[in-house]
Amino acid sequence: MTEDTPTEILDATHSALCDHGYAELTMQDIADQTDLCKASIHYHYDGKHDLLLAYLDHLYEQFEDRLSAPADEGRHADDPAARLRSLITSLLTERSDAPAFQTALLEIKAQSPYDEAFREQLRRFDEAFEARIREVIADGVADGTFSDDVDPDAVASFLTTHVNGIQTRHVGVGHPLEDAVHAVDEYLEATLDIDIDTTAGSIAPAASVEAGRQD
Amino acid sequence: MTEDTPTEILDATHSALCDHGYAELTMQDIADQTDLCKASIHYHYDGKHDLLLAYLDHLYEQFEDRLSAPADEGRHADDPAARLRSLITSLLTERSDAPAFQTALLEIKAQSPYDEAFREQLRRFDEAFEARIREVIADGVADGTFSDDVDPDAVASFLTTHVNGIQTRHVGVGHPLEDAVHAVDEYLEATLDIDIDTTAGSIAPAASVEAGRQD
Questions:
Q1: What SUPFAM superfamilies is this protein classified in (chains A, B) (predicted)?
Q2: What share of chain B is helix, strand, coil (3-state, %, to 5)?
């Protein structure tokens, strides 16, 4: 057992979630993604629920890092519109395993009404994303990039809701991410009274969410 | 066994889904909501998956009826803005069991990437809703209620995505439906260049999605 065991287990949880989904996930599936036996994983985590909460906590730390320092912050540091678009597109498309991951995340969201601990974790993601969007919009209003009429609270909440919709519609019926992001560009242009630089955060070729699970 | 047995079973499926969610649902849970034994239900449906598909089919018929004749069609027949708002709010709030039902529906959406039959059913709902929204917007552009600049295809797709987001965010983190509908009103007013009659489709007091399942 090394110092890195918890990280190895959390990485294995991510892979196992992408492969099996949340409902079907077992501790054995997670052990199968590591060199550890199931008992070693139980040594660190009481069970699937406990491990999933630790995984969401780990994910939240990564999410916070991404929100505070987008990959292209340097290139777009002075352009609130590009930062805003980059925040939205990176959430939708960053990971190569995004479709499977988005699907597992939707399963967890559907469990949240019955699981207060999951719900608290999901609220942290929701609030952090909305707060970051609000901050970037407020910056853009302050420096004159966006119209004075823009209400950062209202637009941040609307965008947070809309991004939930993009993820759900993509998972549920395969609505293309490219079309959804194009529609967000049009919304931002109209609402903030700007021209969007569509090179700030590009959308990868349609990632399919129809690929079967590995179980 | 009466002529109404299939309808009784489908109604029982709805109640059982709201009580137990999709993942936990068993044929026995459905039988418990009827005077029938589990074997009688198996006589009509091969299993849970087959029954769920029949249920989604039944739900789609009701959905189509609602889309083509909203409850307040008479009152708002000549007002495309009110019809549009009524379509959106009725989808979000019509049923008294809406929170539990929305949660079960989100579970089914999360299964859809692994289940082509579910996905086909969900696509019918998605397409029917988007088409109806598009039609009402096109009517409003044609009769001069909405601005000539409005693209019915683009706005209908954006609203369909957004309604997915309202449902998901409500289930996942308890974001209030009233706030979400208010934000849609502001979007419609800005995009269609209209004043919204907020009496067209009212939002009931916050329905909680935090109530525990009955299992």
A1: Homeodomain-like (SSF46689), Tetracyclin repressor-like, C-terminal domain (SSF48498)
A2: 70, 0, 30
